[in-house]
Amino acid sequence: MPATPEKYLEVQNSDEFSRLRHTLRRFIFPTTIAFILWYSLYVLLSAYARDFMAIKLVGNINVALLLGLLQFVSTFVIAWYYSKFAAEKIDPAADDIYNSIDGDRRAPSSTTEEGSVL
């Protein structure tokens, strides 16, 4: 039987849920702001510092190309770091909250022909 709406409200008002939201926000807000500033710097330099962005570094690779590629690198680094952060800090706390709601009852998602859980 699914949890009642009252149970979800109780969890939402709990200290554990507040700590989980605080932990998540402590990661997401600074990371998002840093990335937006980094991206904005790239856009502004591309628009207003064309001579700087045109400086050749190696062969035909200029500052603009390098900074553009670093946008991709920073995106992947942030995604990797978030994945690691979530696995260590967010997921265990979320699992604890889920288990407190569900009473640690989990229905099998699917079964094989022999009846074993996949």
UniProtKB/TrEMBL annotation:
Q: Which InterPro entries match?
A: DUF485
Name the UniProt key words of this record, in alphabetical order. Membrane, Transmembrane, Transmembrane helix
Mind telling me what this protein is named?
Membrane protein
**Membrane-spanning residues where?**
27-49, 61-82
Q: Keyword rRNA processing on this protein?
A: no
Q: Does the keyword Translocase apply?
A: no
